[in-house]
Amino acid sequence: MNIGIIGGSFNPVHIAHLIIADRFVDQMKLDRCYFVPTNLSPFKTEQSKHDATPAERFEMVQHATILHPQFRVSDTEIVRGGVSYTVDTIKQFKEEHPDATLHLLIGSDQAIEFVRWKDWKTIVELAQLCIVRRPFMLTPEQERRLTESLTVNGKAPIWINAPLLEISSTEIRKRVSENRGVNYLTVKAVRDYITEHQLYK
Fold first, then answer.
1. SS3 47
2. What is the count of structural domains for the chain?
């Protein structure tokens, strides 16, 4: 079985997340693709009082992914609590799916900082690292050097092609706080959830 893993705050999940995940499934021929909302990111240990709770972020991802046959949502990091480290999540998935091939998807911006991640080489050894190629962000030379620096024991990252979509969770939260619409930025079920629970106000 081929399993994909996409971590993130998903605060909230939006259309770009879903499109990139769909391309990930398609390019890597994944049987399942798990969205794993963080409990607390090691790079963002302070939370705004206007942020959605981990449970609310988890529910929004469930609403957003329910119609895709390969998409799943894991509460692994939320249940574990504390600061969320990807290496711990990869190890847990490996224990739960010992015969599966794991694929971890990260963004180009995350790839640049990946060597700062806890036990990053262990992550690369346990899972196939995949990086979303964002058009115009990296030159071919920068991409080549990044590939070399993140290759461990001959195992190189794989680049995933996806359309360039300038959508961010930060933008959605800002628009909601200003009582502006977020149509087309996320799916209707998530928009309805934000309204119902009065998030980001």
1. coil
2. 1
Q: How far is CA 107 from CA 80, 161, 167, in A?
A: 24, 11, 14
Nearest Cα residue to 99 out of 34, 30, 2? 2
In a domain, 121, yes or no: yes
Backbone CA torsion sign across 133, 16, 130, 44: positive
Query: Could you tell me the strand order of the sheet in which 128-133 lies?
Result: 71-73, 32-37, 2-8, 101-107, 128-133, 158-161
DSSP per position, 107-175: EHHHHHTGGGSTTHHHHHHHSEEEEEE-TTTS-HHHHHHHHHHT-BTTB--EEEE-------HHHHHHH
Distance of CA 73 to the CA centre of its chain: 11
In a domain, 186, yes or no: no
pLDDT recorded at residue 31: 98
* pLDDT for res 43: 78
Report which DSSP code applies to 50.
T
Is 171 among the domain residues? no
| CATH number of residue 118's parent domain | 3.40.50.620
Low-confidence ranges of the chain (pLDDT < 50): none
Q: Residue 165's pLDDT is what?
A: 85
